[in-house]
């Protein structure tokens, strides 16, 4: 919950009206139902941490096998770098608005990124200590923003026809991508919990943390974005500093004292992204170590610092394009994570019920599956007329995660059965 109570989630909520041209109620329903669906996979993945004591990127070895699992770890490494970039830019927009444009976006990104690297390098216990308290402070600030901003929000009506259907499904894909992005690192933060904890309890607490935080903060993002309708001031603020500009605008018109207080709130909100960026950087280091045994000899701290340097360079380069970066990145996330998670959970439900994993085999290729079935399903891409038929030509609708879920399920079960029958692993 702590990592999601911040302005990156707030910025994501603005995509409904800003990019997909949805109104209030259709954005509300998308955020409600697709977040319910999207919260389930990472909550389920979180149950693996206490039961097995294995980091998340070790789990693919029990379905993908030794070598294909390395490829998954590399993809997720890029995933964490991309998320750190998106989150840092979101926070930097608030600092940029506070500085009235005098603080360059590149410097704002560096400030946020470097602070996150300093906190994240200290490791597991310090990350948890920070997360325990940071969300409370940020939540108070978001409530204050809601209070000042409510009167500016507009009930934008819903659309109709094929265009509306296309927008809802496409926004739904980005919501799914935003939520399930937690799945490939979810088990990392439960490995020191007692093995006796009931998986149902871990699932429910994780689900509530993911859903509650993203649902309410994303709705606030939608509300702030609706203020752009009919208000040149909010439109100009958004054009100048993104969601940071929208937040700053709600404090104007109440006198110098309130404006100054608003700047203070914005600074806190700008640094709220530390709660998520330090998680990205910590898990990034673990991902590198999952790529090969030789990389385990290098301390996680070194890999986190190197990854931090790369993400800072990328964030500075993309600092002025948060909305487009977020939309494109989230779609790519949904593309690879849906088949990946489908394979992991099918393996778990059908062949490894009751957490029947040989945890001593995690770094022994001879005791792990060959991964032929998983690798084949994962690299299978289907581009056909269905997406085009759902929405308006020539772009159609992004229904990638639905197709990936169905196709992977149909392929993996029989192929994995044949693989186990032949090789016994």
Automatic annotation (TrEMBL):
This is Purine-cytosine permease. GO terms for cellular component: plasma membrane. One of its GO terms (molecular function) is transmembrane transporter activity. It is a multi-pass membrane protein. InterPro entries: Pur-cyt_permease, Pur-cyt_permease_Fcy2/21/22. Its main location: membrane. It comes from Hyphodiscus hymeniophilus. Belongs to the purine-cytosine permease (2.A.39) family. Keywords: Membrane, Transmembrane, Transmembrane helix, Transport. It comes from the Eukaryota. The chain crosses the membrane at residues 30-50, 71-96, 102-123, 135-154, 166-191, 203-228, 264-286, 298-317, 329-351, 372-393, 399-418. PANTHER family: PURINE-CYTOSINE PERMEASE FCY2-RELATED. It is found in: Membrane.
């Amino acid at each position: 919950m702590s990592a999601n109570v911040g302005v990156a989630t707030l910025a994501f909520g603005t995509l409904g009206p800003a990019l997909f041209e949805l109104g209030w109620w259709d954005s509300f329903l998308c955020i409600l139902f697709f977040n319910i669906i999207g919260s389930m996979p990472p909550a389920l993945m979180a149950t693996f941490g206490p039961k097995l004591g294995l980091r998340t990127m070790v789990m693919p070895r029990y379905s993908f096998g030794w070598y294909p699992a390395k490829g998954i770890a590399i993809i997720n490494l890029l995933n964490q770098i991309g998320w750190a970039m998106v989150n840092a830019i979101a926070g930097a927009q608030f600092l940029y608005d506070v500085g009235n444009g005098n603080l360059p976006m590149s410097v704002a990104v560096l400030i946020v990124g470097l602070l996150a690297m300093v906190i994240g390098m200290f490791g597991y216990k310090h990350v948890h200590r920070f997360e325990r308290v940071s969300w409370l402070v940020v939540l108070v600030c978001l409530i204050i923003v809601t209070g000042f901003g409510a009167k500016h929000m507009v009930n934008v009506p819903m659309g109709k026809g094929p265009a509306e259907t296309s927008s809802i499904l496409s926004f739904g894909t980005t919501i799914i991508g935003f939520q399930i992005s937690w799945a490939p690192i979810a088990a990392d933060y439960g490995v020191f919990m007692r093995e006796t904890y009931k998986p149902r309890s871990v699932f429910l607490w994780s689900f509530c943390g993911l859903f509650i935080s993203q649902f309410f903060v994303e709705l606030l993002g939608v509300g702030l974005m609706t203020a752009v309708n009919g208000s040149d001031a909010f439109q100009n603020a958004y054009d100048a500093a993104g969601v940071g500009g929208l937040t700053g605008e709600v404090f104007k018109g109440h006198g110098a004292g309130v404006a100054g207080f608003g700047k203070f709130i914005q600074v806190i909100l700008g640094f709220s992204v530390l709660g998520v960026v330090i998680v990205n950087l910590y898990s990034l280091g673990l991902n590198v170590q999952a790529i090969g045994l030789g990389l385990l000899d290098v301390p996680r701290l070194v890999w986190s610092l190197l990854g931090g340097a790369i993400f800072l360079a990328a964030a500075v380069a993309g600092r002025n394009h948060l909305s487009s970066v977020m939309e494109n990145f989230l779609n790519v996330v949904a593309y690879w994570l849906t088949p990946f998670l489908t394979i992991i959970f099918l393996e778990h439900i059908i062949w490894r019920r009751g957490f029947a994993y040989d945890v001593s085999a995690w770094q022994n290729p001879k005791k792990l599956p060959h991964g032929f079935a998983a690798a084949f399903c994962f690299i299978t891409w289907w581009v056909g007329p269905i997406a085009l038929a759902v929405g308006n030509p020539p772009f159609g609708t992004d229904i990638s995660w639905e197709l990936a879920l169905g196709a992977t399920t149909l392929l993996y079960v029989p192929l994995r059965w044949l693989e186990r029958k032949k090789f016994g692993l």
